Each structure stands twice: as C-alpha cells, then as structure tokens.
DNA sequence: GCTTGTTAGTTACAAAAACAACTATTACCA
DNA sequence: TGGTAATAGTTGTTTTTGTAACTAACAAGC
C-alpha cells in the first residue's frame, strides 16, 4: 500500500493521548525489564516500593492518593512486598483500620539499587535533549498528569 | 506524617517514565470512557479502528508495526471489529497468509465520530498551553516514543 | 448511647492482557 | 528441487487488572 493519509485534518500521529501512550509505553517497557528481571517485581509493586523509599513511612491510602493507584492494586502489591520481606506493616494505634508501611533493610537495598538504575536509564533516555527541553517537557507533563495534586482515586 | 523527602538526589515526581505514565494514564482513562460508553470498544479495538480510518486499507501486521501492538492483540481486535461489521477482511491474492483490512461504511462512521470527539477532547486537554508549548511537547514525545519509525514489535 | 454515613483495607469474581505454542504459507538457498 | 528458516495470523493458557461487594473501624448528629 502507499503512504497516502486519507483523513480530513486529523493526524493520529500528532494526537496527544496517542503520543503520550507511545512514549510512556516505550519507556515503561524498557524500564520494566530492569525491575522484573532483577527482582521479579510487578509494575504496581515497583511503584509502591519507590514511594516508600522516597517518602518513608506511609499508609496504603497515602500511596494510592499520591500515585493515583486504586486501593485494590495497592493492597495486592503491599501483600506481595510484605511476603518477600521488602516492607513491614505496623498497625496504627490511633486508628485500628490503618497500617503504617515501611521498607525493611532488604527493601531499602532494592529501592536504592533500582533508584540508581532508574537514574541511569533516564539519563540515557534524555541524552540528545537540551536541559531546557527536558525542563519544559517535565513541567508540561506534570501539569497534564496532575502530578503533585495528591487527588484521591475515584472509587469504582 | 510530615512532607519530608528522605532521598539523596532522586525525585520520583520528576522521573520521566513516571511523569509519562501519569500523563498517559490520565488522558487514556478519560478518553477511554468515550469510545467505551459510546461503542463498547476496547482500547486495542479503538486503536485498530483509528489506524484503518487514518491510513485506509492495511494488513494486521502493518497496524502492529505502526502502533507497536502485539499481533495477538491485533488479531483479537480485528476479529471483534469484523464481528460488529466495522471492518471487512479480504484475503490477499498474492500471499495467502495475508489479509487486507478495510473499514466498512459503518466502521467509517464510528471512526469519524470518534475522531471528532478526540479532537475536541485534545483541544480541552491542551487549553492553557501555548501553541509553541504544544508543538514542542509533541515533537519531543514523538521522538521519545519513536513515532513514525514503524518498528516491529519484539516477539514474545 | 444509637443510627447513619464514611473510610481503610481485603476478597471474590469477571474482563483483559501477556505469553507461549501452534498452523499455514512463503522465502531463502544449497 | 528439498529442506530450513521466516512470516502472517490464530488459539489456548496463565497473569494481571478492573469491578463490585464486603468487613471492620471510626465519625457525626441526634
């Protein structure tokens, strides 16, 4: 077939959600290999681990609120991470529904390793772009994704 | 808990794959409601439909190569779209392994409706950003995601 | 104190995706 | 030719996710 595009003013290849997905998938897939091959972690597990590594002790709800991950996914990731002894769960003594989550030394070690790997990977991903480009990109993405807003995930 | 971040120079909230994912998920989820509620389409089905709408007749492999979707997902999406009479499959007469896929008039109608909706949605998403911001963002994303390279999906 | 509503987190079931193995056909090449 | 490798596409099975419904605990108003 020829390369003729038979649309009327619409360009899928310039459609933002499409571009976002392609870029996100590309970077996710590459990075996924790292935490999966090295530690057998799932995407959500990695995300929970990173949040705990970054922010220290949090509750499951805190993590979900920050990362906009649904609570059932958090619940399963926490369960799995606890089973591997990467984190410790401590019931709150002011509210018995709540559990505080902290990384164990083993979890910390995994976090540090993956964090360093992540940084190296990001550097590679961004080589060829200027600092201004990168700063601009990140600012726009943060705004599009609502990062930092700490909104709660809408219930099912 | 307090807002103290106890990391050494790493910022998850500025980590590119994280930002990409947050932004992509945000826009995907919002747009998903549209094609799901209106036509009961799955994500991959929508993507296949759009590619056929954009580029006209293609094979399943063409689509997978362009959109970097795995062939099993394409296969099932094509099956489902054909069952709904949104596309027609025609065996190639030069290579009996190959099938040409084209949208039916019904499929075209769905495509046009969703395309217009997509444009409106994108406009809303981008309101508040300057034209220069948008152009810059799209250029960087296209490069990050390798859009336009037409690479084949790595086999399982 | 009771009733009603809300929140934290889990569990069970259904939908979708990932992964692997397969058929059929074509391409390559000695 | 004939044999091996590669390609198009499908199917079956396993994981992972999405969704809903649930338990337990707390909060607020009366």
TrEMBL record, chains A, B:
Database matches in PANTHER family: HTH-TYPE TRANSCRIPTIONAL REPRESSOR YETL, TRANSCRIPTIONAL REGULATOR, MARR FAMILY
Q: Which Gene3D superfamilies match?
A: Winged helix-like DNA-binding domain superfamily/Winged helix DNA-binding domain
Q: Name one GO biological process term.
A: response to stress
- Highest taxon of the source? Bacteria
Q: What is the protein name given in its UniProt record?
A: Transcriptional regulator, MarR family
| Residues in HTH marR-type domain copies | 13-146
What organism is listed for this UniProt entry?
A: Shimia haliotis
Q: Which GO terms describe its molecular function?
A: DNA-binding transcription factor activity
Membrane-spanning regions, if any?
none
InterPro entries from the UniProt entry = HTH_MarR-typ, MarR/SlyA-like, WH-like_DNA-bd_sf, WH_DNA-bd_sf
One family from Pfam that matches here is: MarR_2
SUPFAM superfamilies attached to this UniProt entry: Winged helix' DNA-binding domain
SMART domains found in the cross-reference section: HTH_MARR (SM00347)
């Amino acid at each position: 077939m020829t390369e003729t595009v038979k649309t009327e003013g619409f360009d899928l290849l310039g459609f933002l959600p499409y571009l976002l997905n392609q870029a996100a998938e590309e970077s996710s897939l590459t990075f996924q290999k790292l935490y999966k091959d090295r530690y057998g972690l799932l995407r959500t597990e990695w995300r929970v681990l990173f949040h705990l590594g970054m922010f220290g002790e949090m509750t499951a709800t805190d993590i979900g609120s920050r990362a906009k991950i649904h609570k059932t996914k958090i619940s399963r990731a926490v369960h799995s991470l606890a089973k591997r002894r990467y984190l410790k769960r401590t019931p709150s003594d002011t509210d018995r529904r709540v559990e505080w989550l902290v990384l164990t030394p083993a979890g910390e070690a995994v976090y540090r390793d993956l964090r360093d790997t992540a940084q190296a990977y990001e550097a590679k991903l961004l080589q060829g772009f200027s600092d201004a480009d990168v700063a601009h990109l990140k600012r726009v993405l943060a705004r599009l994704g609502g990062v930092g807003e700490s909104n709660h995930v809408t219930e099912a």
